[in-house]
Design brief:
Blueprint: E1 2-8, H1 21-31, E2 36-44, H2 57-64, E3 69-79, E4 85-94, E5 98-105, E6 119-127, E7 130-138, H3 144-166, E8 185-190, H4 198-202, E9 214-216, H5 217-222, E10 245-250, E11 257-262, E12 274-278
Parallel strand pairs: 1-2, 7-8
Antiparallel strand pairs: 1-12, 2-4, 3-4, 5-6, 6-7, 8-10, 9-10, 11-12
Length: 280
């Protein structure tokens, strides 16, 4: 059984106003003995964020999970006043062997809203059933135009991954060493849009090159039953409670889906953690 948790951790800022990464990891472990943890809103040197001490959270989270491979995905990389760098982005921690890691910078269209660059972080892990690509992302909050462009960027990353499966490249030495490729994937993250959003539905459209479609795992397991709330449950600063945290699996993995759970008890972030279990 493969267990994956995705969580927008808001740099560890809980509803109580306390930033506590140890609490986050303890709560994630309480949800499941996870194999892969996908995180959004991880920071480094960002003491300008609410109650953040500016520490390197990428390193801190890696230290809290010593048996896991820690993969960083920095979307925002800007200078601070002292000549250092402030970094903000996503992270994947896997206790399964990690092979190829890719970082896709998503399209950053212009909009008059408050917005920032975004990416998709991808790690290919070795499972008992073969390689699996695990992707995590965090799409723009303020602009539908930007999100739609970012959705096309995600689809392009998945399309090209499938192309590399059906068009096997020549092997080589050094930087040209070939690693396992696969069209099978799990896509997780905070998509900053609701289920009925057209851009969210666009993610599951078919591909002309035959790449397996990205299927909403909750819908695959529960049909038209509404997604549980994953945001604004305990704090309504950004609106009424709703779901914007989703997990997709490629259609070949749908028969392997066993369960999906939205943990609505946690108050360690303004988002709720989400667990998926697959027979892999």
């Amino acid at each position: 059984m493969l267990r994956i948790i995705t969580w927008n951790i808001q740099w560890g800022l809980g509803i109580d106003g306390r930033v506590d990464l140890e609490r986050l990891i303890a709560e994630a472990r309480g949800i499941a003995d996870f194999d892969v943890l996908c995180l959004q809103e991880v920071s480094d040197n960002f003491d300008t964020l609410k109650n953040n001490d500016g520490s390197n959270q990428f390193a801190a989270l890696a230290a809290l999970l010593p048996g896991y491979t820690a993969v960083e995905g920095v979307a925002l990389d800007i200078p601070d006043e002292a000549g250092g760098r402030r970094r903000f982005g996503n992270m994947i921690l896997s206790r399964l062997p990690v092979t190829q890691v890719l970082r896709y910078t998503l399209p950053w269209e212009a909009a008059p809203t408050r917005n920032m660059p975004r990416l998709v972080l991808e790690a290919t892990v070795e499972t008992g059933s073969g390689p699996l690509r695990i992707m995590t992302t965090h799409l723009e909050y303020s602009s539908d135009k930007l999100r739609r462009a970012q959705v096309e960027g995600i689809r392009e990353a998945h399309r090209t991954a499938h192309e590399r499966v059906i068009t096997l490249r020549e092997d080589g030495a050094g930087t040209y060493v070939r690693h396992p490729v696969t069209s099978s994937a799990v896509l997780t993250g905070d998509f900053n849009m609701r289920h009925e959003d057209g851009a969210k539905k666009r993610l599951s459209d078919p591909f002309e090159n035959g790449a397996p479609a990205l299927v909403d795992a909750w819908q695959a397991l529960n049909g038209e039953k509404a997604h549980p709330w994953s945001f604004c449950i305990y704090e309504q600063q950004h609106g009424e409670p709703h779901c914007c945290d989703f997990m997709f699996v490629t259609e070949d993995l749908v028969p392997r889906l066993r369960s999906m759970t939205y943990d609505q008890r946690s108050q360690a972030s303004d988002h709720q953690p989400v667990l998926i279990e697959l027979d892999l």
